């Protein structure tokens, strides 16, 4: 997969079917997986892919609804009142808004929502995806109101029978998981507070003047970027240590975003110069896909401003900024309420609202689609409620649904095959007669630990990143490797919560190159087929994050906190 996507720049629609076939072959010949288990693993992968496509469709539908209503014009004007500098927009949208949405929804929603917004502001599609994915990575460990910690660390450790070992350290499993979350926040704070500057630097260097590539425009806004990173990181870290594992990303983005917006409106930290992309005529073809960036909103080759004559509300001064933003505000409110309010969360997760297939083909593999709990449902609800908010005509509504449906076709093949491949790898150690060494992914991790021995802390995060890169989920990575990291730390005499905390961070940074997250983000901006370019560029922040988290893990384990449990 790496060779075809990153090396040869094949589109995922070509590379992933081949990768799936290879996974089937390895599963059958090396892991002795029966054909029914191979088929069942692939089927559950298809079900997971459909759940992700549900999110992408919702994000696309909301995007096209706002485009048809002309709300993007008004949103653009709102940003212009703060700054129309692209670097400032990356900080406000690509960092603060993306981290907030990650804290509320997770599951790839930030890139699927923020990338189209940046596209609508006039960003090249490729730059919009890069900024959105890099900008939100610090928040992924606590995405979807703490799901990677609660579902990915706490529940598996409890179900796998680690209670006795954890009790020896004086913790219950929930207390231990909270401690892991706090250490993960420490890594993220020390390493990730520079991510606003990283995102800006990636965009200005790779999407600026191609004849004079330079990081100078990024250094000009370094005070704003670093202040933004610190304004996010301090309440984020305090929340993880002293409040809860569910809300660090939400609290960090809300508090930090409010501080920085207030400072910018007061006239401080704004850049002295103005930076923008080169003229549209100079953009390479791979920067833009089937959705054309607009100076006043994304377009698709047709006028996108609603007018009084076609039954819509005119964009511009006639539409209030609150009205233009209201569908996205509604999304965030719905996502927070449906995850943070226990009775509502329990209601939408009732069996009546879940499509489930237990023991597929008689195997021990099961799959489900929680169609109401998934953010895609609430994105669609917001798009429907936007119709009366904007007074849209029937023609505008049908056009939005039609365009969203057309754009969902391209990522379908790539997502189905990549997740089917991942499920084959994950389930390769679960069938009767499976090798004692565990699944393909566990074997990879075990070999790494055995090879490295005492320097294992340096690669603990990379193991988590491997899991997330393959599965596209911090939660799945934690489920797959959390227990393994705990056992490896015990065998090597290392502080377990520091190592498992590094795992939780690795599961976040792996999302930088997680193929189906990349496909989903590219689909929302009409650029499916450029997965390899995104992954190649995102290897830069991945390497940075991995090296420095590994450094701190070594320092914590052997120098600063060697006596921790």
UniProtKB/TrEMBL annotation:
It is a multi-pass membrane protein. GO terms for cellular component: plasma membrane. The chain crosses the membrane at residues 39-67, 88-107, 113-134, 182-207, 219-238, 250-270, 328-348, 368-387, 408-426, 459-484, 504-527, 539-561. It is found in: Cell membrane. It comes from the Archaea. The keyword Membrane applies. One of its GO terms (molecular function) is lactate transmembrane transporter activity. Keywords: Cell membrane, Membrane, Transmembrane, Transmembrane helix, Transport. Pfam families: Lactate_perm (PF02652). Its main location: membrane. This is L-lactate permease.
